[in-house]
């Protein structure tokens, strides 16, 4: 006895008749991945949120975040290397600022998404130990 199994291809629901998005160049996607990796640490997210409000020097970030100065400096180096922040020397201090507001929007949207709570049946969520 032979049983014929028919598999029908099911498409995802169309959002307002949207067409497929043209593929982006591989180097663009790789750079976007590097940027997201640079933002993927709770301390770095906190730094971006602080810098969104105002330019700050290291000691202000240390005070605001309650973290050790070497840790803040290490995370600022990562953010600087990724082009997220820019530091400008003022006497003995370096004042950091966000390179542009797009980066703050990425972080704010991610934090807001998490704060809105679970979505769907597979929303186990990530703890900070997973970041």
Structure write-up:
A hairpin with a 2-residue loop joins strand 2 and strand 3. The model has no long low-confidence stretch (mean pLDDT 86). Helix 2 (42-53) crosses helix 5 (101-115). With 131 residues, this protein is mainly alpha-helical. The protein has helices spanning 26-39, 42-53, 58-65, 69-81, 101-115; strands at residues 56-57, 85-90, 93-98. The radius of gyration is 21 Å and the shape is elongated. It is 47% helix and 11% strand. It has a 3-stranded antiparallel β-sheet. It has a domain at 39-116: Orthogonal Bundle (Arc Repressor Mutant, subunit A), CATH 1.10.10.
Short key terms for the protein model shown above:
mainly alpha, transcription regulation, DNA-binding, single chain, 5 helices, HTH_ArsR_DNA-bd_dom, DNA binding
CATH class of one domain: Mainly Alpha
**Unreliable stretches covering 5 or more consecutive residues:** none
Rg measurement, Å: 21 Å
Largest sheet: 3 strands, antiparallel
Please name the CATH architecture of one domain. Answer: Orthogonal Bundle
* Beta strand count: 3
Which band does the percent of strand residues land in? Answer: 5-15%
SSE series:
HHEHHEEH
The CATH H-level homologous superfamily of one domain: Winged helix-like DNA-binding domain superfamily/Winged helix DNA-binding domain
Helicity range: 40-55%
For the biggest β-sheet, the strand order reads 1-3-2
Tally of alpha and pi helices: 5
* Mean residue pLDDT: 86
At the fold tier of CATH, the topology name of one domain is Arc Repressor Mutant, subunit A
Per the principal axes of the C-alpha atoms, what is the gross shape?
elongated
Distance between the termini: 53 Å
The helix/strand class is mainly alpha
Keywords: DNA-binding, Transcription, Transcription regulation
Protein name: ArsR family transcriptional regulator
GO molecular function: DNA binding; DNA-binding transcription factor activity
InterPro entries: ArsR-like_HTH, HTH_ArsR_DNA-bd_dom, Metal_resp_trans_reg, WH-like_DNA-bd_sf, WH_DNA-bd_sf
């Amino acid at each position: 006895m032979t049983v014929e199994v028919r598999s029908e291809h099911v498409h995802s629901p169309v959002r307002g008749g949207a067409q497929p998005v043209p593929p982006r160049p591989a180097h663009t996607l790789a750079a976007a991945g590097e940027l997201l990796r640079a933002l993927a640490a709770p301390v770095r997210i906190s730094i971006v949120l602080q810098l969104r409000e105002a330019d700050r020097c290291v000691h202000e970030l240390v005070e605001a975040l309650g973290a050790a100065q070497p840790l803040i400096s290490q995370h600022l180096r990562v953010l600087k290397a990724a082009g997220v922040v820019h530091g400008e020397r003022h006497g003995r201090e370096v004042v950091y600022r966000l390179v542009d507001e797009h980066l703050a929007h990425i972080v704010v949207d991610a934090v807001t998404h998490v704060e809105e709570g679970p979505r769907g049946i597979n929303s186990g969520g990530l703890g900070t130990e997973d970041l």
